[in-house]
Amino acid sequence: MSKQFFSITEATIHNMQHAMRSGELTSRKLTMMYLEQIANYNNNGPKINAVQEINPDALHIAEALDIEREQSGARGALHGIPILLKDNIDTGDKTHTTAGSLALKNNYAKEDAYITNNLREAGAVILGKTNLTEWANFMTKGMPNGFSSLGGQVLNPYGPGKFDVGGSSAGSGAAIAANFAAGAIGTETSGSILSPASSNSLVGIKPTVGLLSRTGIIPISNSQDTAGPMARTVEDAAIMLGALTGIDSHDPATATNREVINDYTAFLNPDGLQNTRIGVSHNYQEDFTDEERTLVNKALSDLEQLGSTIVNSIKLPTDLPESSVMHNEFKNGLNAYLANLSLNVPVHSLLDVIHYNQSHAQDALKYGQTVLVESETKSGLLTEPEYITDRLTDLRLSQEEGINAVMTENDLDALLFINYSGCNIAAKAGYPSITVPAGYTTGGKPVGITFTGLAFSETKLIELAYAYEQATKHRKAPKLD
Predict the structure, then answer these.
(1) pLDDT higher than threshold 70 for residue 93
(2) Does the bond joining 7 to the residue before it have cis omega, within 30 degrees of 0?
């Protein structure tokens, strides 16, 4: 096959590496192909608006990695592979880190986030930053998924303006669905990877809190935040996850990981569903259409044919009490992050952000800032009895009396949900999930299923998701033209 016939549409990391090894492709050419795709469809055509900023050094980095490949070989599976980052993850280069806020439009991070540095060390080309729901959807109530005052509205490639794009890693989801890069990094506090992944027919991994470092990521909740990979296949997501892991001396949560795994591809087992038990809590399916439930019932049937026993009798709590945890932790974490920013940035505390938005209300407050204002009423010191009580209650109901109890009592390997419907209880527990495409409605709306497990059970979840994906192969590219 000649060089000009390589197509990035639905190309996997394995495809790209094979083409680069054979000389059919270079990282520089691959990066140029993705840039052309972005030029055609991000602000033109359907105007997906998923990519917020391009790294001006991307082509230089790609070319340098090509030279390195020639001289000493590839570093690994991500060598020369273009990756996008959600715009709340620090990059110590010529791209900004803004969380979609006008207040941070001139913010250049002093150094890479821990996971950004890991990607560079693995040989990835940091292609640019993706748009997101402003402040990772912790700014106000009623803001559409994928909207930010700085970047505007992200659209779903499967139905621009018709289908919800998911939040808050909306740009990361839409970009990878639209083949703007090989993969992207999103972040999740409660649903922000799983939601856009399922909405954009992607694989999204929300890891256990502590599997990946949180250093250098604009925070919401110290107890729930995590970054994670978003990709078109389970294999690509597994490759990316392995590059992101590590023990970070600046993030104590990473020390709770007893075994650092840098290669999750060892768990890509096409027979991974045999002799497994998966629990389904049907009270999590009440808000879905009959057609969506039909697709999930087909998925359950497929899982059974692939060797899994479906346990339908489980009941997980759906009415977890309202919690003050995120509001308290947001003020604490955001103040710490903003305090270290350059003096060229006009905000260095949550209160500064609120005042800045008020002073630029016409542009910055299209949907208000009720969540920011409520968070500012907290001390930021995490001493409130309300906060401590809520945090302990969240752990008890989500872990001991929730996921732990149900999985132990029923001897389960995982729980299964439609799309991201179980994200809240998993987020409060700090437990991992992986979503994988399960088909489309007759109108073309993507539907996914999500596997959730106990802490640091990513290996098992990847096995389950890969076996299901390989047997069903539901994902198909959106028709951008």
Answers:
(1) yes
(2) no
Contact (Cβ atoms closer than 8 angstroms) between residue 281 and residue 414: no
Cα atoms found within 13 Å of the Cα of residue 334, Cβ hemisphere only: 30
How would you label 149-165 residue by residue, b for 16+ Cβ within 10 Å and e otherwise? bbbebbbbbbbbeebbb
The H-or-E segment that residue 85 falls in is strand 82-86
Higher pLDDT, 389 or 284: 389
Is residue 172 within 8 Å of residue 186, measured between CB atoms?
yes
Can you give the pLDDT at residue 215? 98
List 27, 29, 86, 398, catalytic entry:
86
- For the question of residue 86 being annotated catalytic, the response is yes
DSSP 454: S
Which sign, positive or negative, has the C-alpha torsion 160, 44, 205, 29?
Answer: positive
Residue 137 backbone zone (phi > 0: left; psi -120 to 50: alpha; other: beta): left
Active-site pick, 148, 172, 192, 323: 192
Q: Are 333 and 301 in contact (CB under 8 A)?
A: no
pTM: 0.97
Residue 392: partners with Cβ closer than 8 Å, 6 or more residues away: none
pLDDT, average across residues 60-72: 98
Distance CA 480, CA 39 (A): 13
Q: Which of 148, 149, 168, 324 is catalytic?
A: 168
- Give the integer Cα–Cα distance in Å for 171 and 149: 14
Please check whether residue 186 is in contact with residue 169, taking contact to mean a CB–CB distance below 8 angstroms: yes
192 annotated active-site:
yes
- Report the share of the chain in percent with pLDDT over 90: 96
pLDDT digits (tens, 9 = 90+) for 418-445: 999 999 999 999 999 999 999 999 999 9
The confidence score (pLDDT) of residue 4 equals: 54
Q: Among this protein's residues, is 428 annotated catalytic?
A: no
What pLDDT is stored for residue 2 in this prediction? 38
pLDDT tens for residues 220-260? 999 999 999 999 999 999 999 999 999 999 999 999 999 99
